[in-house]
Amino acid sequence: MDRLRVLMLVNNDIRHDTRVMKSALALADGGAQVTVIGYGSQGYPEHVRLGDVEIHRVPLAWRYQNKALERRERFLEGSLVPATSPADRRAIVRRSRLRISEAAELGGRERRARAKVAEAGAQARSRLSRAQQRLHEGEKDLRGRVLQWHDARTEFASWRRSIPAIDDYEVAYSALVNSLDWDVIHAHDMHHMGTAARAVARRCAQGRPAWWVYDAHEYVAGLALSPPRTARVRAASVDLEREYIGLANAVLTVTDALADELQRAHGLPARPAVVYNSPVLDGDPGLREGLDVRADCGVGADEPLLVYSGGITVARGVQTAISALPQLPGVHLAVVCVPTTRTTRVQALRDLATRLEVTDRVHFLEPVAPDDVSAYLASADVGTIPLVHFGSHEFALANKLFEYLHAGMPLLVSDCRAQAEFVTAQGVGEVHRAEDVDDFAAAARRVLDRAPQIRRHIAQTPDMLAPYDWHRQSRVLRDVYRSLVGEDALVEPTHATDLSEVTEEPCWRTDRPTVLGIGPTNAAGQGLAWGRAVEAHVPGVRASVLGIDAGGPLRFDADETVPLSVFRSNPRWAAEFAERIDADWTHALIEAGRPLVGRRYGRTFVKHADALRALGIRVGLVMHGSDVRSPAATTRRTRFSPFDDPLEQSTYELEARRAFLLQKIEAFRQVGHGPVFVSAPDLVADVPGSIWLPQVVDLDVWGEEPVAFDADVPVVLHVPSDPRVAGSEVADAVCRGLEAEGLIDYRRHENVVPAAMPALVKGADVVIDHLRIGSYGRRAIEAMAAGRVVLGHVVDEVRATAPGCGVLEADPDTLEDVLREVLRDREAGRRAALAGAAFVRERHDGAFSARLLADHLELR
């Protein structure tokens, strides 16, 4: 048959679900094409690759679940006897006082009568209001009790009524399931049983063979009860499993005891296959450099160290271990928290440790990679699994049990059936009564006393873990698939992929035409200029440029322009634009440190870059001078401060904004997004590690023979983009003086629309650019392209970055002397104009910038 195609459905984001990842890799090693669909916990879709496995993460809107929560809240807050609001009560009192003061001030029988009626009415309403409040509170308490009673009832529990999240998963996943090619659906846990069963039924109705496998990770009827899971929700989960399990073509589970129970409870014709959720147990994990739980805790080699590694819930019983520490002087506990230490449940454990005054002996640690767990934990003395009694726990042999043993550690486990029987039968530790703090402490003392002997026993019994090794479990998994599809569906691989060998990488979009998206600012039209340059000089690449219209006279063309108000606050536009990006873009160049898609993915460009990269879009960043040019650095380049206007932002504020952007740029780099470009050569010093991406001018518009520079009275033009930065007050003073002498014709303009600039520049002989910032700007590039003599302040570092720059050096102190010398030595001016035109053709005509973008963004 053709290559077997397997689609796995998962109700989490897969990042910490080792069973899912190992199962997917095991099938891929056997020759299957495996795709996994999980929950997009970051809030945006993701398409990544883990070795040979493709992973899609789909964000969920939780519409049905949220509606159910809203109905529950409305019931709890509703009332048949609504209480008078405080505002209404105050209004009644104020009105009574008005009537009383009116009677006192004006007198009269009728007014006094009205005052007495108003006063009596206010008192009556006050008594009524207090009675209503008591009734309302009592009714609210009663409604809460009704909800508690309902939550505890299991009769007639239905998953369709009690677990609306199942429909949310169906809505989110089904479109992608229908769009993909697959032969077998592997439903991990009960949440996707219905989605799998219906998808297979649809495919079979079309005459195409299809199968689905149910992988029962837990004993559903014994799931732990903790909010939001109530007894009724658990019963509804059993209802879901019962409805669909008989439709599955094969059933897998995690222990022999659970396999027997599933067959008994659901009357299955065949016992489910058992694939233990165990790690790769061959080889010696040993201690690896940088992986040492004892070192991370700061605990000495002679101090006893217990360790717990895994999820943090009340049902996992970690609170029992912490509560026992006061009875275990000198003993430390390391809690490796999956998925992170930054959760409310971990904080509850921190608070418990504080109350018991053992914070110095409880260490909360971030998790390590799945295949590093055993090596990381190996330096601890005892591994603990203090599970609370729940039905699912009675059947569980947790992954951590095998990880602890693989690390050579003795075990301290609660008396949940499966793990207690294993530890006792194998002689690898001690058992304590679940949730019994005193018994935990006593068992801990016993296992710590016996630890050396138990370690020797584990080391001398290498075959103990052999039946549970993941390589053996993966063969069982592949055998299940062969029994469904045929013996030739999968092969036994010569090499089994370990999780340590693979990392997630984006699924780069190499299967479609290349489209480079640029936005959102299109500053001075540069986004469009770079886009058109790429289209002209990189074959087969199309550009799509977004520009923000902030209002005002200066507007620049773009492929799509969005008003600033829409960009900032219109989620519908953001959603539609995100869909167009998903459909078309393969590469993106984010401008100016701005978020690309409004506020859809957050307020920083880093989150937007994360979302694009997760789709397989290669991302780069380009910063302009107004974004990251350092005021302090500018002042160092020249003795003239460009921000000396007292009405301008303070240097401190500008440096604070720049520091924030540099921090985000570093975060952008750390996750390996892509190159960071700057649009001006001086910014290479301001943004460490950046690449100068020259601005582009259209030589069809600006290209012209260099000026003859032979007019009796040359025209000197100054069109500053920012007069304060450009040193315009100095240029005005110098040029007005020379104009008064009849030496030049001085023309000064501001806020010139782009379409009018070519005529102004070509009507001039000399153009004055920035005199203060130590670099050259767009006006200078356009003037050099037109073959005009350009004066400006360009420091040596910039000239080294941009060799051949044709700007004649002039600053506020030297401008007059330089201008007089140019007027005297016209030939020097003509040589400068020729050099400037050649420099623009070399660096700013678009070809050079297009090559940079193609090389660093991998445009193909």
Secondary-structure topology with pairs:
Blueprint (H helix, E strand, L loop, with lengths): L4 E5 L8 H12 L3 E7 L6 E5 L2 E6 L4 H15 L8 H21 L2 H44 L6 H4 L2 H15 L4 E5 L4 H13 L5 E6 L14 H15 L4 E4 L2 H11 L6 E2 L18 H5 L7 E7 L6 H7 L7 E7 L5 H12 L6 E4 L7 H5 L4 E4 L5 H4 L4 H8 L4 E4 L2 H10 L2 E4 L4 H23 L10 H16 L18 E3 L7 E6 L6 H12 L3 E9 L10 E4 H6 L1 H14 L2 E5 L13 H10 L3 E6 L1 H4 L2 H7 L13 H20 L5 E3 L4 H4 L4 E2 L6 H4 L12 E4 L4 H4 L1 H13 L4 E4 L8 H6 L3 E3 L9 H8 L3 E4 L3 H6 L6 E2 L5 H10 L1 H18 L3 H11 L3
Parallel strand pairs: 1-2, 1-5, 2-4, 5-6, 6-7, 7-8, 9-10, 9-12, 10-11, 12-13, 13-14, 16-17, 16-19, 17-18, 19-20, 20-21, 21-22, 23-24, 23-25, 25-26, 26-27
Antiparallel strand pairs: 3-4, 3-15
Helix pairs in contact: 1-18, 2-4, 3-4, 11-17, 19-35, 31-34, 33-34
Structure, described:
By secondary structure, the chain is an alpha/beta fold. The chain folds into 5 domains: 5-59 and 160-274, Rossmann fold, CATH 3.40.50; 65-152; 293-462, Rossmann fold (3-Layer(aba) Sandwich), CATH 3.40.50.2000; 514-692, Rossmann fold; 700-844, Rossmann fold. Helices cover 46% and strands 15% of the residues. It has a 9-stranded mixed β-sheet with strand order 8-7-6-5-1-2-4-3-15. Strand 9 (305-311), helix 11 and strand 10 (332-338) form a beta-alpha-beta unit.
